[in-house]
Amino acid sequence: MLERRNPLSKIAAVVPAMVLVALATEVYLPLALAGLALAILLIGGVSLRRIAWALLPLALVALGFLLVYPLLVRRELVAHTPVVMQWGGWVVHEGALRLGAIATARITALVSLSLIFSVTTSVNDFLLALVQQARVPYRVGYAAMAALRFAPLLRYELEQIRAAHRVRGLAQRGIVGELAHVRRALVPLLASAIRRAERAALAMDGRAFGAYPQRTYWRRVPLGAVDVLFVLLLWGTTALIVLILHALGLLGPLSFVQRV
Amino acid sequence: MEQAQPIKRPLWSTRELLIAMVIAVVFGIVVVSSTYLYAAVLGLGIFARSAATGLFFLPAAFAAYVLRKPGAVLLVCMVSGLVAIPFTPYGLLVVGIGVLTGIIGEIATLIVTRYRSFGLLRLLATGALAGLIEFGSVLASSLRTTPLTVPTVLLATSLSVGAFVLASLVAYALANAVQRTGVLANTALGREMMEAQ
């Protein structure tokens, strides 16, 4: 269901929720919106496995946030709240834990909301929608699509360059080795990619790419009534969540400034 | 379809468009890991974020120096964000970061170079200006929790500016190295080098 929605409508649908998350100063709103995003994904026919895989890296990030944030928070903001933990010079206040929880909830919500777009949309469809509905010049859109086709080839080439370096005895282990490898590989990789790009450009020019101000499309990415309905439904649900939380007194102020 | 009109030469040739796009794709692939880095350092507050945003400017500086066209920075930043979507935990947000960095970089390039002279000093100045503006956005998003004392802000500013200047310097060295392979002969940089010889 979600796969067939217009990519632009998916962006329009989640942007208000993302802005609200950015302004939230309590955990409840981000958590509720993250829940909404997951519900939409499940209703939209994305398998639980797929969602779990997409959220796995997020879980690590969130864990890091939860652990690191309370230690780095602005001391004077939370100094008036009771001390929860003390270990040598490190003092963890209750307010700091709360701020860490809020930051974690916000990042979780932002990523979950963006999954509605990123898990269910191919980059090609997105580019087509940009050309067909958002009036991006088709030469730009099609050039991007052509270049994106190179991505798997270039990744393969990166492996080849790595192998070539290893044969010559240049392989190193660890993060330093990895960085050295990237540094050595960038120039040949860029040179070969640019050579490919020039060849593709000549081939496209040879087929009169860009000769007409308009072009025909083999594949259309329509923007229909269902898409508009989808956007309105998501906006409505978001507004409903805000209203319910407000009625329950759990909304908290919406602002860029955090108070404890 | 109607008869093809004799059209004006477009601002961007197909070759330049595709070169810009593959630059974005290559850096998108290589710099993908940096979005994980970004994710990891987000929690570490304003300093780490100031330093990490410089990485996003690397492809933009490279494209600006090689192609010298209005729009190159924005285009490359957006496309490298698009490439990174499937590989990062951030999804759509990466494109957002790309667009933001692209707009900032484009403004800085316009102000400093006017798309005419691209010497090393001007390139570094572009990076410094972009880093300064970008820092404003990092600052705006860190207001909640970071102690905004004068030394903190100064240190974070210089980190951000430093990271962007470093990105410009790396892009400059990299572009010159690629230029020596001969593949850039048909770009603005290649033509300039040819004339200089």
Task: Report on this structure.
The complex is a heterodimer of chains A (260) and B (197). Chain A has two domains: 147 residues, no CATH class; 72 residues, no CATH class. In chain A, 71% of the residues lie in helices and 3% in strands. The radius of gyration of chain A is 24 Å and the shape is flat. In chain B, helix 1 crosses helix 4, helix 3 crosses helix 4 and helix 6 crosses helix 7. The longest helix of chain B is centred in the C-terminal third of the chain and has 32 residues. Chain B is globular, with a radius of gyration of 18 Å. The chains are: A mainly alpha (260), B mainly alpha (197). Chains A and B meet through helix 3, helix 4, helix 5, helix 6 and helix 7 of A and helix 1, helix 4 and helix 7 of B.
Categorize the overall geometry of chain B. Answer: globular
Number of strands of chain A: 2
Largest interface: A-B, 69 and 55 residues
- Largest sheet features of chain A: 2 strands, antiparallel
The figure for the number of domains of chain A is 2
Shape designation of chain A: flat
**Classification by helices and strands of chain A:** mainly alpha
Order of helices and strands of chain A: HHHHEEHHHHH
**Unreliable sequence segments of chain B:** none
- Beta-strand share of residues of chain B: under 5%
**Quaternary status:** heterodimer
Our measurement of the CA-to-CA distance between the termini of chain B, rounded to an integer number of angstroms, reads: 47 Å
Strand order of the largest sheet of chain A: 1-2
